[in-house]
Amino acid sequence: MISLDRISRVFQVGGQPVQALRGVTLKMEPGEYVSLMGPSGSGKSTLLNIVGLLDRASNGTYLLDGKDVTALSDEEQARVRREKIGFVFQFFHLVPRLSALQNIELPMSLAGASAPERHARAVELLNAYGLGERAGHRPDQLSGGQRQRVAIARATVMHPAILLADEPTGNLDRASGKEVVKILEDLHESGVTLLLVTHDPELGRRAQRQLHMVDGAIAEDLRATRA
Amino acid sequence: MKPIDVLRFAWISLRGYPARTLLMTVAMAIGVAAVLIFTALGEGARRYVVDQFSALGTNLIIVFPGRSETAGTGPGMFLGQTPRDLTLDDALALARSRAVRRVAPLAVGSALVSFGGRNREAPVIGTTAEWEAIRNMQVAHGVFLPPGDPHAPSPVCVIGATVRDELFGTAPALGQFVRIGDRRFRVIGVLATQGQHMGFNTDEMVVVPVASAQALYNINTLLRILIEARSRDELDAAKRDITRIIRDRHQGELDVTVVTQDAVLATFDRVLTALTLAVGGIAAVSLGVAGILIMNVMLIAVSQRTREIGLLKAVGAAPRQIRLLFFGEAVLLSSIGAALGVVLGLAGNLVILRVYPVLPVTTPAWAAVAAVATAVITGIAFSIMPARRAARLDPVLALSGR
Predict the structure, then answer these.
(1) Chains A and B: how many Cβ contacts under 8 Å?
(2) Which of B117, B239, B334, B338 is 20 to 30 Å from the Cα of B387, by its Cα?
């Protein structure tokens, strides 16, 4: 479903070109659970952003569901992001002025869904993630774990096939982190393709496929046999 | 994204920053209110002048002696010109035109009017019975000048309300003799109070037969001739007839100026409309300033909300949608500001009406519409740049860091 062929990404830093990705080739099948690990600056986040269409590769081809998405216009890429991809960030990135419910509704609202439809779906997710009581709370009235659960609800409200998580537990205490990981893994169980960027080896080892990146290239591609 | 959702999102954003929303709304409101009040003042002045003119009478044509012409300054130029005055016979001849309904000659001077021990300097108008109808004068007591041979002087006068009060106090004035200059006149009528018309207060004047006035000042000329045409349609015909008659009587030379009241009115109307537009335009500058303020604050909003914009992109907002969201904010802001400005402007008009009841201040509808439209359009126009900047934001950079 995801097929990267010799993807590279060059940034200009202070006039000097910096190779963030050096010809990464990667295939991911639907329903895979992949963790992406590596030291800071190894290009994990850049790779995640390119897979999520937030960033464009300098070179190489990216086929998503067999379609070349690198050539799409900004508007078309936004549509693909909206319909196929969900993002979960380390710093949650909830809109501070919107309530939990409104934050979850946001992608549906951007997609032009009707208000009752959005509301029903958002309430369903809030209840599923144990946030039923928190629908009207704004992000600053929620704990870190609750915020991340709202963010996951927002990422999944459009039923995306791919979920991209960038250090989802990096800013949480252990207990909340565990809850979040549980939710993500439950989503994977239900068939979502999960790509998880993490620093935490313990979390990384939970995935069936573990990628290690060094200097903008995939150094190791381990497939764990599920116990 | 549905338009209603765009507006709702924009509304929530505006509520999230109450101080800046309030400031921008007030700036917009002041601009709109200024346009409304200034144009209302201009329009009030215009209407005031138009009303004053209409009170002079209808279908009026005024004939002045003399004509503005370009003349050289060579020797003999002045000698060669023989200014012909308007005479009573000129005026009477004009009445022969079929397009003319009434003619009133006017000889005006100033004289000391006295009764008993009191005296008062007053403008003295020499005219005929026709003047009453042409100028829509109302007689409060007694009668106006009697019709009759305009060449025959007659020692009667009609006095203005103020003159009556000043000379007679509460005593009856009708039938009394007043002295005007060195002659005696019997008061046969008192004019009703009418107030000021074009700087000419009819309450303060004395009206005598035209021949008497000419005798009083020892002149045989007229200051002007007032003519009432039979109808509005016949104004032009009347004007042509007047020109022809005067030319015939003045040895083929047209040495008078003929103006219709409409022409004078139209000139004033144009001048004052231009004035209204000018002050409205000056006020509109403040709308432009408000627009720049909106741009400034929107730019700040874009940089403050970088992460939010990045996030919107991550959850699938297309650049077009991001622009729409910022437009939505600008439209909401300027609409609310404009609405507030209209309320403020109308309230201002009411206050001015209270303070200066004579001035009919009302904002013309076009000005109100133009002010609101300008406010909304500047709001949108000045948000184009910030909205585009937001839409171009790199989501990766926007989302990095906290």
Answers:
(1) 77
(2) B338
Chain B contact set for A168 (CB, 8 A): none
**Which of A54, A96, A114 lies closest to B396 in CB terms?**
A54
CA B310, B315, B317, B323 torsion-angle sign:
negative
Predicted confidence (pLDDT) per residue in A100-128, tens digit: 999 999 999 888 888 899 999 999 999 99
**Tokens 């409205």 -> residue:** B280
Q: Tell me which H or E stretch contains B78.
A: helix B77-80
- Minimal-distance CA residue of chain B relative to A52: B314
Q: List the single residue in B with minimal CA-CA distance to A164.
A: B314
Measured N-to-C along each axis, helices B365-392 and B18-55 cross at an angle, to the nearest 10 degrees, of 160
Structural contact between residues B378 and B294, judged by C-beta atoms closer than 8 angstroms: yes
User: Mind listing the pLDDT tens digit for each residue in B347-368?
Assistant: 999 998 898 888 888 888 888 8
Q: How far from B269 is each of B49, B113, B164, B320, B367, CA to CA, in Å?
A: 8, 38, 36, 48, 16
- ipTM tops the 0.85 cut: yes
Query: pLDDT per residue over A173-193, tens digit each?
Result: 988 888 899 999 999 999 999
Chain B residues inside the 8 Å CB shell of A75:
318-320
B1–A78 CB contact, under 8 Å: no
Q: Which helix (H) or strand (E) holds B130?
A: helix B130-134
Q: Would you state the structure tokens that stand for residue B396, as one six-digit string?
A: 């990766």
Beta-carbon separation of A111 and B308 below 8 A: no
Please, what is the Cα angle at B24 between B22 and B25, to 5 degrees? 65
Q: Chain A: give the shortest CA distance to residue B401, in Å.
A: 8
Residues contacting residue B306 through CB under 8 Å, at least 6 positions apart = B393, B397, B398
* pTM (2 d.p.): 0.67
